[in-house]
Structures are given as C-alpha cells and as structure tokens.
C-alpha cells in the first residue's frame, strides 16, 4: 500500500490499536485515541524489533520516509537503530538544563575566578533562569538570546541588557569548554545598547556636597558611608575596599594597607600608604565593627558587604538632594584626576591605582614607589580635607623624587 497524506488523515481510531503497512517494514500505528505514529519493524540478531520514527502529522510523510531510509541503512551496517534511538533519548533526557549549567558555571568557573561572581548570580536569577531555567542548554538558540535581551531593553534597562549578554556569553563559553553544548548561542550577538566610557570626575564643590551629604543620609548605614569615603581617600577599587580585612592593615610607620594578590585585579600584592585622613576613617570603622575580621562586615552574613550592596544602598538610600549623580567607581577616578591636577605624576598615580603595566620597562622597573605613593596620598588627603572644610589653599605637593 502506498501511503499518501489523504490516506493517513482518513485513518480512524478503533477500539484496539492497529497497524497499517506500506513496505520494507515501514508502517503507521493508530491508537484508540487517534494518535498516529510512524514505525519501522525489523529484525536484529534474530529478534523482532520496533522503532517509533515520529508522530504524524508533526512528522511529515516525507520526513518519515527519510527516517525509515536512515534506519535501514544503519541496520545494513550492523547497527541496531532502535537501540541507538533509545540511547539518544536517554542522552536527551539527561542533557543539562540551563539551571544546571548555571550552577556548574558559578561553582566551577565564576567563583574561583571572579570577585564579582555574585553579580553573575544575581543576573542569572533575575532575568535568565525564570525564562530558560527548565530548558535544555543545548536547545537555547541565538534567537532566544536576542529575544531575552530585547525584553530587558524594552523595560528601559539597556546597560543591564549588555551586562546580561556578557554573563550569558561567559556561561555558554564555559559550556562549550565542558562539552555541554557544541556552539554558543551568543555567537555574532551584539550588545543591544550603546555604552559610553564614563569619565565622570566630581568637582571640588561636588566632593564637598557628597562628603557632607553622606553625614545627612540617615537611611544609609555608617559602614557604607565610610566605605565610600575611604574609596575617595585611597583611590582603590570598590571591591578591594568592601572586602578589606583588618589583617591587611599595619598602622606602624605611618600606616600601610597591603591588598593581597587574590583581591587585586592584576593578581599582584599592592601596598597602599595610609594618609592621616584614611587612618581616621579606618578608626571610625573599627569602632563600629567590634571583633569582626572585616572592616565592613555584612549585617546579614559572617562575610563582608558586597560591592553590589554599596551600589544598592546608593540607589535606594542615597543622596537624591545633592543635585548630581555618581557611581562608586567615579570616586576612584575623581581621586586620580585631582591628584594629577595637583601636579602629581601620572606614573605615581598609576602605581597608586595598581594598573597593569606592560612592556620592557615594566619588566625591569622593580622600584616600589612606596615613598612617592605616600607623598601623593598624603598630599591628596590634605587637599581633600581643605575641600571638605571649604578652606582655600595654595599648598603644592612635594615633588615626586626617584629612589627607594
């Protein structure tokens, strides 16, 4: 019997399941509820076997003929097509979901390598897992990625869409490296929103308003206020500030903060001299934390506060009456810019910022610049005090000299 679509459509369910055959073991099975499934009947190692090829009309007659031909070819090669199909179905059942992939990515890649892994976790939980969580990771397509990002942009969060794409890309690159998926669905997907490099530097008037505004921000914790002030006083990264431990500080010989390599962006230990202003801020912090090993302990956990907690506090309990906006990272840029404006060399400021150095000069320059860094931060501390107190000053920083 030659199958046609008209014939298949006219097959009616009966009280018992029945089969209709075309040729070469190719047929269709009709259930009492009317479900129609293409099947292949064959013998392998002298045993009768059945292979379900697919359901009609989801599988077209042409595709069923093609699947039947492929199964016969495997049988001729000594392969049991039914057993292979069972294996494929089992692999499909066990294929990792996006939720499983996300857990593995966080535990085996993000946590060991990224200080900001909690931000990846937050992005995954907010915008990715609620939509994709139960789906197989290998089934996520480029179109899925684009639609998800478009949804974030449509709610007015273009920059967050860019951050989400970055997290998805890292996660699927990890999945490719672990042979969880063959190809990343993020290939050729561009950031959905334009970004401008921030060059925000607070003016002296804004610094003064910020410093005094922090004192008046009643809904912000004292620790968060001190963290923001310490970042402005030391020009160090927000993540290094909030994760600082008391064991990193030595208050002898003027005071030093040694940021360990695992916390530094360039993975090199970094010595930061403490100006009198920085020491004063740290003393205030010490009076708040009692016996905690952290300078800025979290009120919810036994760890330190997170960089995201500072951002959140600034948005939620921040300084709306100031008349200007800023991000925590702008404080580091502000300190650096004002120091160069005071005549402090860019090289010394770069050393203070612990920027990555490249080239032959970086290899052979073993000078610690400790003295120059201390002179720079103490000069900046004096300048910062004069700004806060609104004192006009013509103090010129001590020239930076070479030497140990």
Quick structural overview:
With 404 residues, the protein is of the alpha+beta class. The protein has 16 helices and 7 strands. Helix 5 crosses helix 7, helix 6 packs antiparallel against helix 7 and helix 13 runs antiparallel to helix 14.
Strand ordering within the main sheet:
1-2-3-4
**Amino- and carboxy-terminal Cα gap:** 96 Å
The number of distinct β-strands equals 7
Give the overall pLDDT as a whole number. Answer: 87
> Helix share of residues?
40-55%
**What would CATH call the class of the largest domain?**
Mainly Alpha
Shape field: elongated
Order of helices and strands: HEEEEHHHHHHHHHEEEHHHHHH
**Uncertain residue segments:** 360-364, 393-404
How would you sum up the major sheet?
4 strands, antiparallel
Q: The CATH topology of the largest domain, please?
A: hpI Integrase, Chain A
Q: Note the beta-strand portion.
A: 5-15%
List strands and helices in order, with pairings:
Elements: H1 5-9, E1 18-21, E2 26-30, E3 36-44, E4 47-56, H2 61-76, H3 81-94, H4 98-113, H5 117-132, H6 142-154, H7 158-177, H8 204-216, H9 222-234, H10 238-242, E5 249-250, E6 256-259, E7 270-273, H11 276-289, H12 307-316, H13 328-341, H14 346-353, H15 360-364, H16 370-388
């Amino acid at each position: 019997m030659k199958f046609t679509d008209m014939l298949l459509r006219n097959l009616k369910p009966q009280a018992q399941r029945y089969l209709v055959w075309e040729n070469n073991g190719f047929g269709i099975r009709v259930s009492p509820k009317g479900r129609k499934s293409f099947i292949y009947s064959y013998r392998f190692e002298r045993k009768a076997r059945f292979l379900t090829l697919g359901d009609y009309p989801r599988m077209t007659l042409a595709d069923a003929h093609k699947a039947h031909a492929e199964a016969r070819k495997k049988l001729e090669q000594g392969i049991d097509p039914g057993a292979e199909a069972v294996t494929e179905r089992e692999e499909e059942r066990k294929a990792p979901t996006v939720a499983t992939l996300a857990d593995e990515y966080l535990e085996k890649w993000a946590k060991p390598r990224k200080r900001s892994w909690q931000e990846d976790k937050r992005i995954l939980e907010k915008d990715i897992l609620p939509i994709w969580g139960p789906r197989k990771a290998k089934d996520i397509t480029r179109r899925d990625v684009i639609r998800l990002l478009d949804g974030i942009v449509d709610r007015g969060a273009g920059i967050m869409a860019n951050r989400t794409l970055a997290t998805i890309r890292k996660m699927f690159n990890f999945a490719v490296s672990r042979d969880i998926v063959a190809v990343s669905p993020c290939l050729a997907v561009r950031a959905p929103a334009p970004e401008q490099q921030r060059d925000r530097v607070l003016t002296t008037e804004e610094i003064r308003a910020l410093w005094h505004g922090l004192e008046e921000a009643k809904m912000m914790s004292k620790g968060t206020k001190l963290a923001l002030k310490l970042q402005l006083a030391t020009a160090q990264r927000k993540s290094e500030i909030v994760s600082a431990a008391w064991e990193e500080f030595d208050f002898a010989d003027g005071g030093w903060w040694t940021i360990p390599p695992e916390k530094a962006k360039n993975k090199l230990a970094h010595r930061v001299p403490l100006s009198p202003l920085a020491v004063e801020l740290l003393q205030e912090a010490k009076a708040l934390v009692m016996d905690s090993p952290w300078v800025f302990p979290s009120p919810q956990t036994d760890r330190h506060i997170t960089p995201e907690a500072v951002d959140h506090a600034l948005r939620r309990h921040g300084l709306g009456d100031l008349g200007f906006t800023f991000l925590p990272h702008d404080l580091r840029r502000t300190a650096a810019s004002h120091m160069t404006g005071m005549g402090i060399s860019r090289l010394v400021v770069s050393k203070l910022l612990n920027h990555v150095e490249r080239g032959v000069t970086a290899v052979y320059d073993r000078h610690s610049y400790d003295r120059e860094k201390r002179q720079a931060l103490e000069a900046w501390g004096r300048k910062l005090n004069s700004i806060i107190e609104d004192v006009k000053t013509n103090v010129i920083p001590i020239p930076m000299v070479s030497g140990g």
